[in-house]
Amino acid sequence: MKKEFIIVFLVILILAVIAFMVNDLFFTHQSQVNPYELNTDSLKKTDSHLIGYKEISQIHVAMDELNGIAIDKNDHILVAGSNLIVYDQNYKELQNCKLNEVSNCLTVSSGNEIFLGMQTHIEVRNMQCKLLRRWKCGNTESVLTGIAVDDENVFVADAEARLVHQYDLKGKFINNMGMEDTLKGVPGIIIRSPFFDVAMGRDDEIWMVNPGMYQLEAFDKKGNMKSSWGKQSEEIDGFCGCCNPTHIALLSNGSFVSSEKAIPRVKIYSQTGEFQCIVAGPNQFDEGTKGLDLAVDSKNKIYVLDPVRKQIRIFEKK
Amino acid sequence: MNSEKDLPIISRREFFRKGMQWSILLGLGGITVGLISKTMSDKTIWQIDTKKCIQCGRCATNCIKNPSAVKCFHGYDLCGYCDLCGGYFKPGTKILTTAAENQLCPTAAINRKFIEEPFFEYDIDKKLCIGCGKCVKGCGAFGNGSLQLQIDHSLCDNCNECAIARDCPSNAISRVLPKKAYLMQGLRAHNEWKNKL
Question: How far is A300 from B18, CA to CA, in rounded Å?
Answer without folding.
Answer: 93
